[in-house]
Amino acid sequence: MNSIFGNIDDLYLFFCVVEEGSLVSASKKLKLPVSTMSRRLSALESRLNLRLLEKQGRELVATQSGQQAFLAIRSGMENLESTFSQMLSESQDVTGSVKLAIPHNFYRAFVGRVVEEFVRQYPKVNVELALSQESVTPETNRDLLITFEIDHLEGMIARPLFQAHHGFFASPDYLATCGPVTTLDQLEALDWISVDRAQAVPVFSGDSFVRLIHIKPKLVVNDIQAIAGAVERGLGVASLPYRHVSPSMNIVQLLPDYHRSAKRAHLVYRDRKYQPRALTLLVEALLDAVSTREQGAPVVKGD
Fold it and tell me: Where is the HTH lysR-type domain (predicted)?
């Protein structure tokens, strides 16, 4: 043996036996079987060609050479223990920065409270919020995204957050100009207000797919609250998340037996490897908040 490489663990076993006063006490501290420790200590003595421990009654105690070795390595082992504990503490201390990109109505509804509580709980973490309806791609392992659109995010981790169920709505004033709507063909022909330019809308009855309707959006707004307001003011018809609809709104549901496919929001981030603890904890906080709200109030008003 001419190096501590491969031997430092066994030297630490010896150090613990002497420091704890017995092999049994050391095995409890290190959570190792007595037989394993005894075998490794014997192998260490063989490599050193030095008797470090001897039996006194039922216990192992340091020989004179062992006591000298213990005193020689004691300071170094204590320093290693202290340094390792400090490194472990620092790794568990939550620090760093996280960037969160979300639609602004999510922030107002529930994310804002989660983030504010998070920064109070972890004051060494800096959170950067980007409130936008535009979907972005997480570029670093500190980026977190909440989005409904994940088709372009191959290779990312997408955690289901909540599901938004929709219905078709218009204002009484708008319906007064176009007449009653009793069929999907009539619904298809109305003035549509949409969050995007998609023209093919899948329509379901319960869990069963019925057909696609093909629409021509008259107004495209990438904000669901703005769309709800436009519907109230009589500009047209829209597919609105039910939780964005309240009894006080001046709108009525069209063809209540039909609805578009539900949309699921996801938490999206890069691979978990080397993921900052701050991001992990923020993900958990957001998931917990949604879980709590699903048992009570809506996650997002209208979603």
Answer: 7-63
